[in-house]
Specification:
Blueprint (H helix, E strand, L loop, with lengths): L5 E6 L2 H11 L3 E7 L7 E7 L6 E6 L16 H5 L4 E4 L3 E5 L5 E5 L6
Parallel strand pairs: 1-4
Antiparallel strand pairs: 2-3, 3-4, 5-6, 6-7
Amino acid sequence: MRGHHHLAIQVKDLASAEAFYIDVLGLKLVRRWPYEDGKPGERSLWLSVGSGEEFIALEACDVDRLPTPFRDPHGGLHLQQKNVEVVHRTRWTIYFRDPEGNRIGLSHYPDEA
């Protein structure tokens, strides 16, 4: 694989996920998608994650997920300021969970921090 077009993440609370990905991670809103059947609200939000056309699609979903454990409670400064717990860290990646419990990894590989 040499790249990706988008990553879809299903979330139960779209507004909370939107706030997290925009306010905490600093992503930019690209597009809002309404439900096609006239249901109120939005079914998806697209957030830019690069200099090209790559994006994250947050998709509304009403399924509950069981929490899953992770390890190593060390934190990153910006995430700590936003009260987001870092659950694991490697040489190039820091891992944390979004409001839905999805594990997110931010990497700077191959650049040294």
